[in-house]
Description:
Helices cover 31% and strands 34% of the residues. The protein contains 5 helices and 7 strands. A hairpin with a 2-residue loop joins β6 and β7.
Amino acid sequence: MQITTIQQLDDWMTTNCYNEYTFGVGNRKLVEGNGIKKTNDGFIWYYTERGQEQDLQYFETEQQIVEFAFKKINGCITALSHMVGFIKDTEDKFEENALLAELEKRNIKFSKDQIPYKVSDTRIRVFVFGCDINQCLDLKETYYPKAFR
């Protein structure tokens, strides 16, 4: 399948379970990162962070920008990642261990990191990749509080 339109790229990303928040393509909800926008003169590959948008590259045709974007997106580990756990580090080691054990039991590859969240509060984030998210939506319901989704 050749991808030549923004809609085809968006559909491909959906089929391959790319995170809907990492690239602004089609109907995806970009918070921060790269995206595509249409102008009267063509198309722009842009970057946005903290409300500041920067145009990076201009393209005359939709096919040109889609080919460019596909090369950037295809295989991007950040775009393939889905957070299934956001756990308070200091109190919830039991929850963290239970989530990791369940992912291992299901043979789902994952990664985790630890980030500062608030003063004296660190959080463990657990990610799965690609379409593995479809095998652990129940875990996301349990280990990723609705307030953070």
